[in-house]
Amino acid sequence: MKLHFHFSVAGFSNTYILGPDEGGDAIIIDPGTLNVALLNIIESNNYYIKNVLLTHAHESHSSGLKTLRKIYDFTVYSGNKQVLDFKSAEVVDGESLDFSGIGVRAIGVQGHSLDSLVYITGSCMFTGDAFGAGVIGTTPNSYARELLITSIKTKILTLERNYLIFPGHGSPSTLEAERITNPALAEK
Amino acid sequence: MFEIEGCKHDGCLLTAVTGTGYCFYHLENPAEVTEGISRRLKENETIKNLNAEYIELSDMSIAGKNLYVSRFSHGVFNRVDFSGCSLRIVFFDFCVFRDCLFKNTDMKYSVFAGATLNGCDFSSSDTVHCNFNRVTAKGCSFNGSDLYFSTFAYSDISDTTFVDCNLKKVRFNNTKRIEVSFKYSNYEEAFFGESPRL
Lengths: 188, 198
Fold this sequence. Notes:
The structure holds two protein chains of two kinds. By secondary structure, chain A is α/β, with parallel strands linked by helices. Chain A has a single domain, classed as Ribonuclease Z/Hydroxyacylglutathione hydrolase-like (Metallo-beta-lactamase, Chain A, 4-Layer Sandwich), CATH 3.60.15. Chain A contains six helices and 15 strands. In chain A, the strands form three sheets. In chain A, strands 1-2-3-4-5-7-6 form a seven-stranded mixed beta sheet. Chain A has a six-stranded mixed beta sheet with strand order 8-9-10-11-14-15. The termini of chain A are far apart. By secondary structure, chain B is mainly beta. Chain B has a domain at about 55-190: Pectate Lyase C-like (3 Solenoid), CATH 2.160.20.80. A seven-stranded parallel beta sheet of chain B has the order 2-4-6-8-10-11-12. In chain B, strands 1-3-5-7-9 form a five-stranded parallel beta sheet, with no helix packed on it. The interface between A and B is large, with 39 and 36 residues.
């Protein structure tokens, strides 16, 4: 299994692709845009985008769906029943998904948005805008901020093992690094 | 995909060095494993999916190699030459680097969070989307580098130069800086105040 990343200048967001070594059905996470560079990654690895995972439905993470649909027939998974003009399989907190042998666990981490999900597969954790390298997501009010911090602390930081963190924006990190270096998560 | 396996030793929470089943503390012969990894790094042009948490390497060159999706967290690197390397999604969090060379590297989506950087040269490099949060950097040079979207938040930086760098969207919030030069760099486009959120 290979992991690829792509940076979208529109929205400054990260898109990730998980696909088999030899090509085949692949998963795309948060297609903020679909441009030639991203398409080249997909096609040069002989991938077919079969499933789309959205950490949340904000445009910088989902706008690429429209162009993607013109090329691939995929199923959208998110915390909603509908995203843009697309029907979505609604994923709930704690749900485990299986994509042709790739197991993905979803954890609901509300606060940045009501539909925010963190996806875990293998050693990788795709955190969307819940948190990233040294930061947490923006929130509409102080209640949502507390909700977000509490969700991360109780559902993510309590996980025993270390994970590689791949956020929706900015550089990657590790769960160990975030436990120690993320000031918002160190707050009492 | 890169999978980190836990150490097989009862109760150990560290990760297993690739191909061994055990962490460096519980390996029967860690020197032999270090030698094997050192040889793998020197003899292959491209190294990927390698987990070598807590490795210690000294006085070697892996200049010009491609390192992809690998993990060297908590490692110690003394006088290691990474010049001209291409690094993608490489984890060096909490490592100690002494007098290491990263000149002319093409480094993207890599992590140095919590690392100690002493006398390291990152000059003339593309160091894009990299995580240097809470590093302690002393006597380092990032001169002539593109640091776009990298982050140095909460770091302790001294006697270090960022001359003629691209600092667009680079985060320096809450850093402690002593004798740090940003001469000829676009520091106006970096964040020194409150950290931008996601």
